[in-house]
Amino acid sequence: MRAEFWGVRGSIPVADRAMARHGGNTACVQVELEDHVSVVLDAGSGIRALGQRMAGGPAPIHILLTHLHLDHINGLLFFAPLFDPGAEVTVWGPPSLRGPLRRRLARYLSAPLSPVEIRDLPAKVRFRVAPSEPFRVGGARVQCRLVNHRGPTLGYRITEGDSVLCYLPDHEPALGQPLHSGPAEWISGLGLARDADLLIHDGQYTEDEYRLTRGWGHSALGDAVDFAARAGSRRLHLFHHDPSHDDAALDLMRIEATERWIEAGGDRASLALAAEGTSVGL
Ligand SMILES: [Zn+2]
Ligand SMILES: [Zn+2]
Question: What single-letter DSSP state applies at residue 130?
Fold first, then answer.
C-alpha cells in the first residue's frame, strides 16, 4: 500500500508562493493498493490533479468521504473520471438523518452552485453510506467510525496484509476527554488509529490558536501528537494545515510537534507535516 498526498490544506484552498512547499489544495489522499484498485480519501481540490493522472485508467475507483464539508468535496466536479462514460466510481460517505448520500451531495452538485447536475455525470457512479461493519475495497479491509468533528464525520482505517493506514483529517479527540488518562474506548477515533503504520491526523492549530478555536472540530498540535502516541501509531503525518499558515509557520510547528513526539517515545524521522506531492510506502 502506498499513500500519496494530493491536498493537505484545511478549510479553503490557497494559492500563495509562501505556502507552495506544503501545498495549497484541500484534502485528498490517494491510497494505491497492491491490486491497483485506487482508494481516494476525500475529494478536496487536490483530487483535480489526481483525476487528470487517473483519466482513462481501467481500474474501479473508490472515493471514501469523511464528511461533506466543502473543503472535502469541492474537487468532485473537477475529477476527470466522473466525466468518462467508461469509468466506474463508488463514492462512500457518512450516514446522516438528512437523507441519502447522493441527495446530500446533490446540494453542491446542482444549480445554482454547479453548472452540472449530479444525474448528468457521464461515469457509472454509485453512492453508498459506509457501513459500520468492516467492508472490502479491492484487497483491503476498510473500517470506519463516527468521530468528534462538526456534523457526521467518519474516520477510516484501511488494512491490506500487515499494513494499516488510518485517516482522521478533521478530528478533535481532546474535546471533553483527556487523552493521557481515562478508558481508551472513550477517546474518539482511538480504536481506528490503534497500532497504525501511518496515521494521517488533523494538526490544524498551534496551542495559542486553539485557545480561541476549541470546539471547532480540529486539533491543536500537541493533542494530535498525544493522540498518536496513545494509539501506538508508528508514523504520524499531521494534516489539514490552516490556510493562514505559510511554510515558515509550518516548519516551526513541525519542530514543536517533533519535540513532543520524541518526549512521548517516538523517533524524529517518523513525524512529518504532510506535503502535497509526497508519498509514503507502507
Ligand atoms: Zn476539513
Ligand atoms: Zn470538516
Answer: P
Which residues have CB atoms below 5 A from the ion given as ligand 2?
A: 69, 170
Which top CATH class is 2-281? alpha beta
CA of 9, nearest ligand number: 1
Read off the C-alpha cell for 74: 469541492
The answer to whether residues 69 and 97 touch, using CB atoms and an 8 Å cutoff, is no
Residue range 208-255, pLDDT digits in tens? 999 999 999 999 999 999 999 999 999 999 999 999 999 999 999 999
Query: Over the stretch 145-157, which tens digit does the pLDDT of each residue have?
Result: 999 999 999 999 9
CA of 181 to the centre of ligand 2 (A): 26
In the chain, domain spans: 2-281
Answer yes or no: pTM beyond 0.85.
yes
| pLDDT, the chain, mean | 96
Q: How far apart are CA 47 and CA 89, in angstroms?
A: 13
Q: Could you tell me which of 3, 4, 6, 43 has the C-alpha nearest to residue 24?
A: 6
Q: Yes or no: say if 235 and 198 are a contact pair by the CB < 8 Å rule.
A: yes
CA torsion sign for 275, 279, 281, 282 is positive
